[in-house]
Design goal:
Number of domains: 2
Low-confidence stretches: none
Helix content: 10-25%
Distance between the termini: 24 Å
Pfam families: Fer4_10, NIL
Order of helices and strands: EHEEHEEEEHE
Bound molecules: iron/sulfur cluster
CATH class of the largest domain: Alpha Beta
Keywords: 4Fe-4S, Iron, Iron-sulfur, Metal-binding
CATH architecture of the largest domain: 2-Layer Sandwich
Cofactor: [4Fe-4S] cluster
Function: Ferredoxins are iron-sulfur proteins that transfer electrons in a wide variety of metabolic reactions.
InterPro entries: 4Fe4S_Fe-S-bd, 4Fe4S_Fe_S_CS, ACT-like_dom_sf, NIL_domain, PSI_iron-sulfur_center
CATH topology of the largest domain: Alpha-Beta Plaits
CATH superfamily of the largest domain: ACT domain
Number of helices: 3
Oligomer: single chain
Shape: elongated
Largest sheet: 4 strands, antiparallel
Length: 133
């Protein structure tokens, strides 16, 4: 059985729940946390590999807890031709995937750290951060 790769998005009221414990104990799922950026009482994002016979029940449980669940079918990329290195995105990236390099003051993007929260897509004034499906 191939694992399902999914993205979970948490609100401030859902970010401190022991969901991994429940997925493993109550639904017999095997969970691999690929990436996560969650601060208690803040919004957060987690990328998981999830496998098990009761996968659909586990997903229903997550949604019943107010957690948004999407299949991981997209990635965020930077359009270098558009980016002006303004730095606006760096203060919004919760995973430090976007950061200002010094002393060049060029904005760098480390896609391996990205947790697909899409904050940079919303705040970039020139739409240099793009979603690819
Ligand atoms: S989607 Fe953008 S803001 Fe969110 S983690 Fe990835 S690079 Fe950072
Ligand atoms: S906000 Fe957009 S233009 Fe500014 S540094 Fe980030 S990607 Fe580049």
């Amino acid at each position: 059985m191939a694992p399902h790769k999914i993205v979970l998005r948490f609100t401030p009221t859902t970010s401190d729940q022991p969901i991994i414990y429940h997925l493993v104990k109550d639904y017999d799922l095997v969970v691999n946390i690929v990436k996560a950026k969650i601060n208690p009482h803040l919004e957060g994002t987690m990328v998981l590999d999830l496998v098990g016979e009761r996968y659909e029940e586990g997903i229903a449980y997550l949604r019943s807890q107010g957690i948004t669940v999407h299949p991981l079918t997209q990635e965020v990329v930077r359009n270098h031709d558009r980016c002006t290195n303004c730095g606006a995105c760096t203060g919004h990236c919760p995973a430090a995937a976007l950061y200002m390099e010094r002393p060049s003051m060029e904005v760098q993007f480390n896609g391996d750290r990205c947790v697909l929260c899409l904050q940079c897509v919303k705040v970039c004034p020139v739409r240099a951060m793009e979603v690819r499906i």
